[in-house]
Write a structure and sequence with these properties.
There is one protein chain. The chain is of the alpha/beta class. Helix content is about 35%, strand content about 15%. It has helices at about 15-25, 65, 85-95, 105-110, 120-125, 150-155, 175-185, 205-215, 225-235, 240-255, 265-270, 275-280; strands spanning about 5-10, 30-35, 50-55, 70-75, 100-105, 135-140, 160, 165-170, 190-195, 200-205, 220-225. The strands form three sheets. The chain has a seven-stranded parallel beta sheet with strand order 3-2-1-4-5-6-9, sandwiched between helices. Strands 7-11 form a two-stranded parallel ribbon. Strands 8-10 form a two-stranded antiparallel ribbon. Helix 1 links the parallel strand 1 and strand 2. Helix 8 packs across helix 12. The longest helix has 16 residues, at about 240-255. The protein is globular and about 50 Å long. Bound molecules: NADP nicotinamide-adenine-dinucleotide phosphate. NADP nicotinamide-adenine-dinucleotide phosphate binds near residues 13, 34 and 139. Pfam families: NAD_binding_10.
Length: about 290
Amino acid sequence: MSQQNTVLVTAPTGNVGPHAVAQLLEAGATVRALVLKDDPNVGRLPEGTEIFHGDLTEPDTLDAALDGVDGVFLMWPFFTTDVSTAPAVIEKIAARPRRVAFVSSVGVHIGLERVDNNCHAYIEELLEPTDVDWTFLRTTGFQANALGFAEQIRASGVVRFPYGAAVRTSVHEADLAAVGVTALLTGAHARQKYLVTGAEELSQREQARIIGEVVGRAVDWEDVEHDAARAAMVASGWPPAYADGALDYFATITEKPELGSTVVQDVTGRPARTFRSWAQEHADAFR
Ligand SMILES: NC(=O)c1ccc[n+]([C@@H]2O[C@H](COP(=O)([O-])OP(=O)(O)OC[C@H]3O[C@@H](n4cnc5c(N)ncnc54)[C@H](OP(=O)(O)O)[C@@H]3O)[C@@H](O)[C@H]2O)c1
């Protein structure tokens, strides 16, 4: 891999970003992290990361971070494209780097996420006609989504959540990052729309059980009914259409497991990490 790549990572202090930054640094790239001013999570970034202050809702604040970069590991940390700056941001990105790896969603892959409302489909649509060598990482759920069970497991050992029987092929955030990093550093995956998943099919209830085994306590599951779950999601800030989409998707994958792929193995040459290994790494969050 080239030693001379300079790569900008957006949303770098979320679940995926720290893995992307660390892997890029390890491969010898120069890594820039786009962070909001006063980001309290900036300490999660490894030493050697170049910090650039910028806000994805204010395109002009991205200029310094994009100046001279070869690639962007792009994450769009908003539910929708109500953030009307998306076209200006993508225009700026498309004018500079050679390569972009964009973390998209399985919802686009299966046609559930329509362009007019959803960020993933819309950002893909903006990037697709540009001259950039883009790679779309259409991912199923993150294994880290199970952190949403942590408070309940710690407090009561019971997870109350909708659709325990929904069967997921959740991906480890480090594997997702590795696919994007490989695409950015090798240039070998231009214009690919990859479905990025883990290698296992596990229901949400099974994920909770595995967490219980890892931390040494029984973990039970109680399904929250669809309408109550929708009300809670909307109350916590989800746009109603997004809550409906997520719950409809859970219902679908209760009937038939969500799609899986071998992209992690194929692109990185390593098997996808298991959910149990993720739970072991994050056991403290559940104790
Ligand atoms: N979770 C899933 O199952 C799933 C599935 C499919 C696709 N995805 C995609 O994966 C992406 C990455 O997820 P993630 O969990 O790693 O991260 P995330 O929670 O989406 O993003 C968090 C990061 O975004 C930064 N951020 C927030 N507002 C910003 C702004 N206005 N300008 C610049 N940065 C801003 C945050 O900074 P602060 O620390 O300062 O807040 C933080 O670094 C998501 O955005 C989503 O599109 C997720």
